[in-house]
Amino acid sequence: MIFIPLPFVVALLLVILFVAVVRRDEEAAPNLPFLALILLTALQSVLSGLRWGYGVQAVGLIAPVIAAMVPPLAYAGVSRLVRTSRRPLAGRIALHGLPAVLVLLLVAFWREAIDIALVLVFVGYALAILLLMRPGADALRLAPFEGAVPAYRAIIFAAAALCLSAAFDIFVFLDFISAKGERALALISVGNLAALVVLGIAAAAASRSPAPAEVAEAVPRPDTGEDKETIAAIDALMEARQLYRDANLNLDRLARKAGIPGRQISAAINRTMDKNVSQYVNDYRIAEACRLLSATGKSVTEVMFEVGFQTKSNFNREFRRVTDMTPVAWRQREG
Fold this sequence. Notes:
Blueprint: H1 6-24, H2 32-54, H3 63-82, H4 89-109, H5 114-132, H6 145-179, H7 184-206, H8 224-241, H9 251-258, H10 262-273, H11 277-295, H12 300-306, H13 312-323, H14 327-334
Helix pairs in contact: 1-2, 1-7, 2-3, 2-7, 3-4, 3-5, 4-5, 5-6, 6-7, 6-11, 8-10, 11-13, 11-14
């Protein structure tokens, strides 16, 4: 019976995913950490297949170092959608390279502590990602509003998957202690599938991410009167210039055009309207879509693109959220 280790299959799927993401986003500034993450995890899967499928034990010296690089790349990819770090590039590389250096030292001098170190790295970066996401979808300042909510959900699942990978490391560690690794192969195979989930989610979050821009400075918390003034200014800008038609509109771009810090815009909309900025912008898009569906003979797809949406799934979901019906049903009712 021919034996093909599952990690090899996972690696092939990751390479296919990498190619698909590159082709899909070839016109947008690439999210390099996420792309590197896909390739790195593909390499990790190959090494896992060699070790557990064919007994090449030498790769066990490399695999932990590769694994330690995965969470920092996931965090870096999320950071590109959240904010621009003011730390120099060399400083950022050195900081996030510390886990790999630490594990490399453990490989050389204290191998018994490698599993514990990897668990701490995975869980630590998962918590760091969740901290970045505390403001909700509005945290993705550099992600287009059209995809902000799906990207937010994907990143939350990615953080959970990092914790899941850490859990598998713990199970493998305990299995070696209690049963001398009898179930390690099965546990690692399932762990590779979890890694595929992490990468698929990361690729979705990286989709169409623009190049970083300057982030507005934080401002003191405004009172209700200032909230209303902020929203009035944004409303006027939306109605006069129809910014919602820009499919790549994001919080930073909106802040620059309005001359108002992004955090002030987000806080005002959250407090006054009980919704995030993505929903606020999409409300304008859906209102315009309703008008076009009622007053013109344009197809639903043409209307979708004209008002700033790029995917039917997101358009239909937001249309139903606002109107409680599909675009086709709306047109039939109004017609």
